[in-house]
Amino acid sequence: MSVRVLVVDDSVYMRDIVCTRLEYFGCKTIAQASNGDHAVKLFKALRPDLVTLDVLMPALNGIDALSAFRLIKSENHKAHIMIVSAVPFEHTRESFVKEGALEYILKPFTKFSFEPARRKLERIFPELARFQSRLSA
Prior knowledge:
- It is a single chain.
- This protein is of the alpha/beta class.
- The chain has one domain (about 5-130): Response regulator (Rossmann fold, 3-Layer(aba) Sandwich), CATH 3.40.50.2300.
- About 45% of the residues lie in helices and about 20% in strands.
- Strands 2-1-3-4-5 form a five-stranded parallel sheet, with helices on both faces.
- β4, α4 (about 90-100) and β5 (about 100-105) form a beta-alpha-beta unit.
């Protein structure tokens, strides 16, 4: 079973990068959204295992979308949220983690930006660690 991911960002380019990186780890992108409002609808309908969420977006920003996800999570206990944003303020990172975000990945990315998230995801979803071990064999 693959980890099912909803990728949310107003930039198609960023969504593609995030999808590619997470698929390399063994995740499966099941949907993409360009704003928080669409993301909330997809979250309810698809019940993903993981959501990557940008902060600054039209229609409904990532902060408000995260609050909406928290209300919905009672129906979807497995859902984890990763913030992927260019908002660099440390207090923002801390506030998202307090709100239940699994990780905060700062844009622009380096080739190592997703490593802390990958390690956390492998602890939560052991099938990702098995996928990585097959790649390195």
